[in-house]
Structures are given as C-alpha cells and as structure tokens.
Write a structure and sequence with these properties.
TIM Barrel, eight-stranded parallel β-sheet, alpha/beta
Amino acid sequence: MLLIGIAGITLTNRECEQLASPLVSGVVLFTRNFQSRVQVSELIAEIRKLRPDDGFIVGVDQEGGVVQRFRDGFTRLPALAKLGALHDRDPAQARARAEEHAWIMASELRAVDVDISFAPVVDLARGNRIIGSRAFHAHPEVVAELADAYVRGMHMAGMAVTLKHFPGHGSVLEDTHVEKAVDARDLEAIRRSDLVPFTECIRLGVEAVMMAHVIYPAVDTKPAGQSGVWIEDVLRTGLGFEGLVFSDDISMAGAGEGGDVGKRLQAHVAAGCDLILACQPAAVEEALATARGLPACAPERVATMRGEATAVWSSLMDNPQRDVFIARLAELEVSGDSA
C-alpha cells in the first residue's frame, strides 16, 4: 500500500523494520539518499535483502532538468521543455530525442536496480510554478506526441511508465508542495486540453498514473487524488485505465487541510488509489499506523511495476548506441531554447 521515504544514505534499524512491513510496497529515493552510483547501488541492494520474494518496488524522480535525484555518475538529462522547444523547429527530431532521453534515463536506473522513475510529466506548460520546464510544451497535442515517444523509450529500457499528474497540474499557478491549488475549469474544458496526453498514452498501455493534489471544484470538491469522481469515473470508467494509481506525496500541503497524515491516507485509499506515497520520513510512522486497518494493494499488482531484466552498468557503458544518444542529449542541453 505505501511507498515510503528514508532519511539518508544508509538505513537505520527502524527504517529496516518499516521497509520489512507487508504494508510497505516500495521505497522512494531522493537526493538525500544519493552520494554516488556505487553507494546508491549498495543501498538498494540492502533494501532488496529486506524484501527478496514479493512485489516491492524502488522508485525515484529522474525526470531531467531541475528534477534529477541521481546526478554524479549518471547522464545529465535536459529538461523536457528542451524537447518541446525542439519540436517547434523539427517535430521528427524532437520525437527521436524524446525516445532517446527516456531510454537513457530508464536504462541507467535499471542498471542500478531502480524499478521506476515517476515519468513522464504530461502536464501542460502553462505557467505552473512547480511544473515549469518539467513539462514538454503548452499545447496538448505536442505533449501527447512527445509523451508517446517517451513511453516507447522507457518500455524499450525495461521500465514501467507512470504518467503524472492526473488530470493535469500545469494550468494552475500554485505549487501543491507548499499550498492549496484550485482549478476552476469544468470537466469538458479539462478534457479538451490537459486530459489529451493522458488519454493518448493510456491507449498505449501505460502501467500507472500519479494523481495531482489539485482541486477542481466544478468536478469535485476534493483534491483529485482523494476523489472517486476523478479516479473511478473519469480515469477508470471514462478512459478505461486498468493499471495502478499512485497518490502524490501525502506529506505535501496540497494533500489536504492540516497535517493529519492518517486522514489523508484514508481519503486516498477510499477514492481508489492503489499505492500511497509517504515520502517524508517524519510522516511514515503515522502512515504505517493508519495503514494497518486499510486494504492493501496485492503484491502481484505491485509487481507489474518491477523493472525488467537489463544490462549491468559495465555493459551499458560499452554500448555505442548509448554514447550516440548521450551526445545528442548534450547538444540539446546546451541549447538556449525553452518551451
């Protein structure tokens, strides 16, 4: 049920106990957990020893640009907005670079035994202060086109896809990490814009969707991740999505009024979220205590997010195709254009 965060670059005894709990379906790693590629590989191996035989996933945000948790020893990935800017000049080249970006990101993570990056961002680049350059483009059709290519690249590298943040975080100003966000548009307006890339990528058979903490009062008064209207009616029934639904981090301000982690967790589960992120170590104890009385996500469903077998790092380094892709991404990174 829970994907939890840990505090540092090694595990404490209490974190070992938390990770061993059957209520915990995975761990989310951050920059605070990363010192080097060797260190993070050893940390992941220690975590795996605690859960060797069941559906347990290791995740990270490795989008590129400002959100890349693992840097030293990994390819510097340009922000997705660079791909959108390239699309304005050369759509075919942009699609190719998107696929290569995804393959590099996913193959490097798989080589250190990370199952998933929560990617790609398919929010629209329409001024949100936390999304910003993390989004491909302002136009939904362009986002859908580039996201299609990104999904292919991730799948080629053996990584499951997580679209975020449903039903679209890009068209409001607020940062839900620190404040409440409200989008006043009605469902039809959202369907014509923000939902376009989600709809297209779901047709490709993506494995997971992460919910936004945004409130859309014309549709429901609850944040999307706590809304059965958005999860069951729009996402599952309307769009035919059968994969896993992640919450965003329930430690974030946009997850609900006040700081009651337990109530936030209950609301997300009741709405239909399969896996709940409690990324701040201070929130984990309360989340675990609440989760004991709630239905868990079946391990076989969680296992659909496990990474496929892939090359070890040494053989990845010897792959000439990777060198070509990295050179192309480096050219994109130094480009002065943005979406």
